[in-house]
Amino acid sequence: VPELPEVETVVRSLRPKLRAAKLGPVWWSGLPLHLLRPPDVKAIQRICAGTRVSDVRRRAKYILIDVEARGRSRGGVVVHLGMTGQLRVVPADAPRVAHTHLVWPLGGGRELRFVDPRRFGWVMAGDVLDELPELQGLGPDPLEQLDAPALAASLAASRAPIKAFLLDQRRVAGLGNIYVSEALFRAGVHPVTPARRARKRAAALVEAIRAVLEQGINNRGTTLRDYVDADGMTGGNSSALQVYGREGEPCVACAAPIVRRVDAGRSTFFCARCQRR
Ligand SMILES: [Zn+2]
Question: I want to staple 269 with a disulfide (CB 3.0 to 4.6 A). Which of 135, 231, 243, 264 is the partner?
Answer without folding.
Answer: 243
